[in-house]
User: Which sequence fits this backbone?
């Protein structure tokens, strides 16, 4: 199955425990309402929202909350529309095109803000699980103020409590009483404080975000351009489109970061002042737009060194087994990438089995052995590599692994997990589950071959497909361009495991012939 409305993006990598947003009928695009101000210079406001929403492949509806007279150097007048007129616009849209998400920008008055609140409540009361993205526009980049203190207080006490995601810049966040580095509590809206208005001397553009799935700093090198009009609108609109399309909030924020960075790279002059950014649908196809997700309480100042590359980036069939005896067996059967995964840390023979597995791999030309989870023992026994899950990143001594020269593989299931993995520059990234799997309980829906093909084409490190792969699917997995396909039960539960290993290796080789050629570029 391919994504029905946004070919620029892969199938959504979402968790079954992700908050459910409204879904569009299968034969229609998701609908997003933009309630904002009209920019006569077409750099920000509704005009910028339309560009970003169309780039994501959703249907954008607009409701004019304010009219501005402006160009690239100045805002000469701002007039909110009468609240009755805003209400009429939303009533007309609700009758025919109810939204999956609403994005707000410049609202212009307390009365207009309250109209928005009433419609959000009404839609949700009617059973529409509408996501609300609030971009609090309090002033122009030229310095013109748009918001009174009464309006700011209405945001704090009336609109923000209804929001799914709030996307202020740092100045707006300060005015709203929102703090950098502060994780939101249960029941509060997710928060993304963008860093585009930070000091231009900062080498990184870093956004703080906090959501039910992930919290941290999203960072990319700052784009050197004088043309940045509409960045906040592009960020918030992309997030709204992603939410409307079924992505969880954390993934929506990563996509918003990617889209805004790409739009900045393609900004252009349109007058004497700062020109507009240009939202384009191919933003998710470039590794240079993928941010790192960092957990530290301040934006990172420098990128840590990359982990060593795998000796052979063409990892091929990747057998995941639970004993040293299995490691020896699959190596003898011709598999050259193996993971020893013994989940119980109290297994009496754990250290011995790790040592035996390492010795067997060293004695096998071309073998690449990764120890799952038990990084301390892997270090102690001089392992070739370690494979960690997302939950292990909070406790593992990654610097020690890097200093020792171990290779690192990381599991991912979504955009934000890939961003977290990419921040560490691992040796490979595993993406899954590709298909439904019984070998491990996890809250993620199967992602399919299209999603694997996307990551294999974008990520500048080897990609390992994992989850539910058997000999019948092996060639199709290899044809996506993935460097490897991990298998568990296809080997350990096979009637003839040695023959199964040989069949899997042959099937992967056959599929790899049809894989698209690519040149990996780890530079950002």
Assistant:
């Amino acid at each position: 199955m391919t994504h029905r409305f946004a070919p620029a993006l892969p199938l959504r990598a979402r968790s079954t425990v992700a908050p459910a947003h409204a879904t569009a009928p299968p034969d229609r695009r998701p609908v997003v309402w933009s309630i904002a101000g009209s920019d006569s210079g077409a750099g920000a406001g509704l005009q910028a929202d339309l560009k970003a929403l169309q780039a994501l492949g959703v249907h954008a509806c607009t409701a004019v909350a304010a009219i501005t007279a402006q160009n690239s150097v100045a805002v000469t007048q701002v007039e909110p529309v009468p609240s009755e007129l805003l209400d009429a616009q939303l009533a007309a849209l609700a009758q025919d095109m109810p939204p999956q998400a609403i994005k707000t920008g410049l609202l212009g008055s307390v009365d207009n803000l309250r109209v928005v609140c009433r419609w959000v409540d009404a839609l949700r009361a009617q059973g529409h699980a509408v996501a609300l993205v609030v971009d609090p526009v309090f002033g122009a980049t030229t310095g013109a103020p748009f918001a009174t203190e009464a309006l700011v207080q209405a945001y704090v006490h009336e609109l923000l409590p209804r929001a799914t995601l709030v996307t202020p810049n740092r100045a707006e966040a300060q005015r709203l009483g929102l703090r950098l580095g502060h994780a939101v509590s249960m029941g509060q809206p997710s928060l993304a404080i963008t860093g585009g208005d930070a000091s231009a001397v900062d080498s990184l553009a870093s956004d703080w975000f906090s959501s039910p799935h992930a919290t941290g700093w999203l960072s990319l090198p700052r784009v050197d351009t004088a043309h940045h009009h509409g960045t906040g609108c592009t960020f918030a609109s992309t997030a709204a489109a992603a939410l409307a399309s079924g992505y969880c909030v954390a993934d929506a924020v990563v996509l918003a970061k990617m889209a805004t960075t790409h739009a900045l790279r393609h900004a252009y002059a349109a007058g004497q002042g700062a020109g507009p950014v240009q939202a384009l649908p191919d933003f998710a196809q470039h590794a240079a737009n993928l941010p790192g997700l960092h957990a530290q309480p301040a934006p990172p100042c420098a990128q840590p060194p990359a982990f060593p590359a795998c000796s052979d980036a063409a990892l091929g069939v990747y057998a995941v087994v639970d004993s040293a005896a299995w490691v020896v067996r699959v190596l003898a059967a011709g598999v050259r990438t193996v993971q020893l995964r013994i989940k119980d840390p109290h297994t009496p023979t754990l250290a011995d089995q790790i040592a035996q597995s390492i010795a067997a791999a060293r004695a096998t030309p071309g073998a690449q052995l990764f120890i799952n989870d038990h990084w301390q023992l892997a270090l102690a026994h001089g392992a070739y590599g370690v494979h960690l899950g997302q939950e292990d990143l909070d406790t593992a001594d990654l610097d020690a692994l890097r200093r020792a020269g171990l290779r690192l593989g990381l599991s991912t299931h979504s955009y934000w997990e890939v961003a977290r993995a990419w921040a560490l520059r691992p040796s490979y990234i595993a993406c899954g589950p590709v298909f439904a799997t019984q070998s491990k309980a996890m809250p993620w829906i199967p992602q399919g071959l299209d999603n694997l093909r996307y990551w294999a084409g974008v990520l500048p490190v080897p990609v390992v497909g994992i989850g539910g792969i058997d000999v019948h699917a092996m060639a199709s997995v290899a044809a996506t361009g993935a460097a490897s396909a991990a298998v568990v039960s296809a080997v350990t539960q096979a009637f003839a495991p040695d023959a199964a290993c040989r069949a899997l290796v042959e099937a992967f080789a056959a599929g790899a012939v049809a894989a698209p050629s690519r040149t990996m570029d780890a530079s950002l």
